[in-house]
Automatic annotation (TrEMBL):
Protein name: Uncharacterized protein
Source species: beta proteobacterium KB13
Lineage: Bacteria, Pseudomonadati, Pseudomonadota, Betaproteobacteria, Nitrosomonadales
Length: 49
């Protein structure tokens, strides 16, 4: 995972904690864990001034 400005918070496979995925990983997880997949919102990286 490198240089992504936006991350997707999600939970799957009955995990108790949220994890952050890039768009590619999110699509994979969505397909693999259709039953347990939970979406927790989008997280944008804060740009440093
Ligand atoms: Zn990724």
């Amino acid at each position: 995972m490198a240089n992504y400005n936006v991350l997707y918070r999600c939970r799957y496979d009955m995990a108790k904690t949220w994890c952050f995925l890039c768009e590619q990983c999110l699509k994979k997880i969505k397909n693999e864990y259709q039953e347990s997949y939970q979406y927790g919102g989008t997280w944008k990286a804060v740009k440093k001034k």
